[in-house]
C-alpha cells in the first residue's frame, strides 16, 4: 500500500477511541442569569455519547437489527459532523435555531481559522494604534507618540552599573508620571507592581525594570495593507502632547499614507537583539532606496516641493536678516555664511546659495527641470532648466520633483549611494525645515481665481469645441448615408466610434493646451503642477477648459433607455453631448445630463478600485506563499527550504537591487569611425598616439624606455598591449550589439556609477584639464587587469564556478573596460595617476559593498515587488493601440493568466515574423497572411438555399441551367442519376472574399468532394460567372428502394449537412488562427558604418494561436515567431523557452502602464515557476503540489485536506521553512536567524577587564561582552 509500517498503520484508520479536546478548547459561557451556554463541540460530544449509549443499550436489549442499524448510522453521522460539518450531500448538524454547528474542520480552515488566524498571525502585546497627522519638523526617522501611549507601552531594561541611577529615578517616578516605570522584575522572576507598591524599591544589578518608552527608543511603525517591505519601518520615538501619531511628510509615500483619517500601528521591541536589528536593518533612512525598482521610494513632497522650486528660481533673493534666520534651520551649520551673490546697494543672497548649504559636500549630479526642452544645447540653459550640482554646490537650475523626488539618479539617490543613510536623512530634514521656514514668510496660496482663463481664451476654447461638434455631426451624416469607409478589420459602427473618439479627444486636448497657455507663470495651480507637488495638466484643463468624454467600459456612454442614453435626448441621437461628452469645465459647472454621465464614469472607477483591491490582494498572497522560503544562502546561491537551487547567482549578477544604478555602455551606439577615434591608440602617428598636450613628456619618454626593457625580456611592447586592449573592446562591442542588446538599448542597472566616481575624483584631486596627465598607459592596463580579478561574485576554481563568475561580472567588466580605456582616461577625463588609482580602488570596494547579503529573503522581496505594482494596475482590457479589432488582455486579468499558467487564455495571439525577403515585400507578406488565416466555407458564403429540384439535368432555377447543362454534357463516368436526391443545396459564394483569400471555385468544390467523398455530388459555376454558385445533392446508398421514407427525411438531413458543411470545411489556413493582421514595425539593424538604423518591416499578428503549425509554414521566421501562451511555448519549444516567454509576458504587463520592476525579481519568479522542469502555477495546484512540508502547505490553502493526507501516510516535516517555524513560535531560518556567531572561547581567557564604574562591581558577563569582538 506504500504506507509506513511504523507511522501509518492501516488499523489506525478505524476509530476505536474518540479524542476529546480539553475545556480550554470548548469553554462554556455564562448566559444571562444562572444558565450556561455550552460550546458547539460540547453539544456534539454530548450527542455522540448519548447515541453511543443508545447503540450499546439496543444491543443489550435485543432490539431488531434494522433499528440497531439506524442507531449506528446516527452515531456515524454525529462523529462525522463533529469532525467536518460541511460534507457534500450530507445535511449539516444544526442547533435548534437552525444555526449550523462549527466543527473541528471549520476551526482550522480559512482566514479566521486556527492556522491562519492564530498561528501564522496573532494579536500582539506591546502595540498601539491611533490616527496619524503630519509634522514637517520631525526627522524622517522619528515618530511623534502621544504621552498616554508612552505611559502604557513598556520596555524591559536590564539593570547594569551604567544605567542603575537612571532606572532608579524612573522607578521613583512610578507608573503615572512619564518617564517612569510600571514593573520591577527581580532576578528570581518575581514581579513588583509599582502601582500598588508605595515604598521605594532599591534596584540591584541583574534585575529588570519595565520602563515607559521614551525619546530615542526604536519602534516598528506599520500601515496596513503591508504591500512591501517599506510598509514596516523602524522609527525613533519622540514623545509629544495630544493623541495622534506624528509623522514626517516624506515618509508617507512608502506607507502610502495620508492624513485624512488613516490609522497606523506601532510595535515596541522587547529585547536588545530586536532593537539592534531594527536599528541596523529596519530604520527609515536605510529604506530610502527600494529594491523594487532600484530607486528611492521617498522624496520631498507637498509644500516643501512647491517651495523649493520657488526658492531656487533665478529671481529669489534674500536679505541678511532672512538669511540669518534661515541658517538656524540648517542642520550642522558651522557658523560660516556664503559670500552674498549681490553686494551693492545691499548684500543679497540667492535661494540657490541656501539650498547649497544643505547639500552634502562631494556630491556631483546633473538632472533636468520638468519644463526642460529636449532640443536644448548642452552648454547653456536659457530657462534655467538644467540642474547642475558640483561638489555639493547648486550651480544652476530650478530644483523640482525630477531632482529631489523619487527619481533614479536624482539628488536623493546620489546622496544615498555616495554618503549613506545618515547623510541622506540630514538632507531630507534640512531641506524641509529650511524651505518650510522660507515659505512661511514668502507665502503661497491658491484660489478659484487661479482656474479662471481670460475672455479671449474662453472664446477660443468654445470655438474648438464647436468645431469638434460640427465634425462629429458630419461623421454622423456620413455614417447614416453609408458614405463612411470602414477601417480594416472594423465594422461601420466601430469605425464611426473610433473617428468620433479621435475628434473629441483632440478637441479636449487642444482646449486644454489653450487653457494652459493662457495661465501666467505666477499662476498658483501652474506652479504646483510644474514643481510636481500636486496635480497634472489634465486637471488644469478639466478645471479651466472642458471635462471631456466620459467613458464606461472604455466606450462612450451606451444607450440605457430605448435607443437613447437619457430621456432628455431624442431617440437614435449619437451626438457628442448625448453620448457623454462634457463640454463644460468644472469652473463653469455641468448641466444635469453632463452631471449624470460624469457620475456614471466616476462610479465605474470606484467599483473598479474595489474589485481590483481584492483581486490583487489574493495575487500578492499567492506570490508570497510561493516564494516565501527562497533566500540567498551563504554560498551565494538562491535556494528554497528544501535546498533546491533556484538560481546559482541572485539576479544572475549577485548584486543587491538597492545598490545598482542604470548605466550606459557607450560603445553600443557608436559608429565604427567614432569607436576607433575614441579607443584606438597608435603610438607611431605624429602626436605619439594622443592629442598634443594630453600626456606628460616624461611619460612618453618612459614608454620608450619601458618598451626597450620589455624587448630584452621578450615581453610585448606598449603598442601590442594597446592593440590587445582595442581588440578586447571590439569583441565586447560585437557581443553587446549582436547578442546582449540586439534592440539597441545601451543601459542596464549595474553597481557603482563609474562616471560619477570619475567626476568626484576630478573634484577631490583638483584635476586641471589644461595640464598634461602623468598616467602611464601600462599602469592603466595593469590596474584594470587587477581590478577585474578583484570583482569576485562566485568563488571557486572549478570550471562551473569560473564560468558562473565570468557570466555574473561580464557586463560590468565590459563597462569598466570601455569607461576606463587608456585613451578615454588620458584624453577625455584627464585623470592624474593619483585620481585614477582612487577611482579604481573605489570601484573595487563599492562593488563588494553592492553584493547581496546571505540570508536575504529575496523570494519575499520579489513577490512584494511584483504584487505592489499590481495594485496600481488597471483591471479592464481596452483596445489595442495599433489594430483596433485585435484585443489584448492587459492589467490584472493578464497577470492572473500568466501566474496561474492558464491553459485557455482569453486572447491567445502569435507574433509571426517573416523571412528576410518576405518582410520587405508587401505582396509576399499578404500571401503568408492568407496562408495562415483559417478560412472555412462559412466565411466565403453569402447565401444558402434548399430547393426541390427533381430533374438533375434540367433545373428549375434558370440562371443555373447553363453550367448544369455544361456539366451533364460531359458527366463523370460512374454517375448514377437514379441515386441522386431530388433535394438540392445551393450555395452562393462572395466574390470579394474569394478573391481576397485567393480561392477558385474548383478549390472549394474539390474540398467539399474530398470531405464527403462519394456521398455528395457537387457542381460549380465558372470563376468568371455572374454569380458563384455551388450545387450539392446527396447520393443515396445502392439499392435504395424505400423512396418514400427517404424523401421525407432528405430535406431535413440536407439542412443538417448545410450547417456542418459551412463550419467544418476548412478551405485555407491553419486551425485556431481566426484572424491575421499585417503590421508594419520598425526593425533595428546595424549599418555598414556601425551605426544603428531602423527599417520598416512587415510582420503578422494573429488572433488565436497554433505555434507548431505556423512555425512549419514556409516564409515564416521560426526563430523569432512567438506565442503569448506560455503553456504552448513550453509544449513546442521546451522549458527554457517557456521561462523566457514568462519573463517577456510578465514584463509586458508590468511595464504597460509605466511601472518598472528590476529584472531580478521577475527572473526569480520565472525560475521558481520553471525550476522543476515544468510550469508550476502560483495556485494551490502548483504551490501545494511541491515537496515542501505539510505544515507549510497547510498554511496556504486546503488546510484540513493536507493535514489529513499527511497524517494518513505518516508524513515527516523537518520544519526547515518559514511558515513551519512561525507556526511553532521559533526563530525562522531567515536573515540573521540563518546564521550563528562563532565565539573563540580560548580568547576569553586573555581578556583584560577595564576599569569599573564607581558604584558597584561589574558582572562577569561584561567581560564576555568585551571578548565578543574576537570571533572566529
TrEMBL record:
Compartments where found: Nucleus
Family stated for the protein in its record: Belongs to the RNA polymerase beta' chain family.
One Pfam family matching this protein: RNA_pol_Rpb1_5
Lineage of origin: Eukaryota, Fungi, Fungi incertae sedis, Mucoromycota, Mortierellomycotina
CDD domains, sorted: RNAP_II_Rpb1_C, RNAP_II_RPB1_N
Gene3D superfamilies assigned to the protein according to its UniProt record, in alphabetical order: 1.10.132.30, 1.10.150.390, 2.40.40.20, 3.30.1360.140, 6.10.250.2940, 6.20.50.80, RNA polymerase ii, RNA polymerase II, clamp domain
Name of this chain's protein: DNA-directed RNA polymerase subunit
A GO MF term: DNA-directed RNA polymerase activity
Catalytic activity line of the entry: RNA(n) + a ribonucleoside 5'-triphosphate = RNA(n+1) + diphosphate
